[in-house]
């Protein structure tokens, strides 16, 4: 079901990432492509009728899995397809999961958080700042969602430090 994206298929999948994420949540194309060489990074695609209908990116970090991107092509949204894929991913990876979400400030962001909650992830209210994904950008206020349960402050700090260091190559304290 999940096709590992390689240099050969990267150009097919990147437009889906661009259409699903604002520039503040996506690296420039060549920086995103370079991640394919990172040992703990995986980019996957899911095809329907021969074209990529969904994609997700994960980082296998020590004892947890960080989901960096999860996107479903617009014409496949709101029909249960994304939920089925997320459930399959969660079932396949037998380790705690972490992902970043936007603050619940409007109907769309609350709906997105609700989607993840319906699939077993828990919203954690600790203030979290995502380091810039592109040069010239500032930090982005987000929150972490986790599975199988909410995390305590000590675990939050450990996850934050590892994500910042490994995913964003950021060693400061945000």
The assigned CATH architecture is 3-Layer(aba) Sandwich
Identify the overall geometry.
Answer: globular
CATH third-level topology: Aminopeptidase
User: What would CATH call the class?
Assistant: Alpha Beta
Number of helical stretches of at least 4 residues: 5
Major β-sheet annotation:
7 strands, mixed
Segments where pLDDT lies below 50 for 5+ residues?
none
Question: Span from first to last CA?
Answer: 37 Å
Let me know the CATH homologous superfamily: Gcn5-related N-acetyltransferase (GNAT)
Arrangement of strands in the largest sheet:
1-2-3-4-5-7-6
Number of strands: 7
Oligomer class: single chain
Could you write a compact summary of the structure shown?
The protein is an alpha+beta fold. 34% of the residues lie in helices and 30% in strands.
List the helices and strands and how they pair.
Elements: E1 3-4, H1 7-20, H2 29-34, E2 41-48, E3 51-61, E4 64-72, H3 81-92, E5 97-102, H4 107-118, E6 122-130, E7 140-147, H5 153-167
Parallel strand pairs: 4-5
Antiparallel strand pairs: 1-2, 2-3, 3-4, 5-7, 6-7
Domain N-acetyltransferase: 1-150
GO molecular function: acyltransferase activity, transferring groups other than amino-acyl groups
InterPro entries: Acyl_CoA_acyltransferase (IPR016181), GNAT_dom (IPR000182)
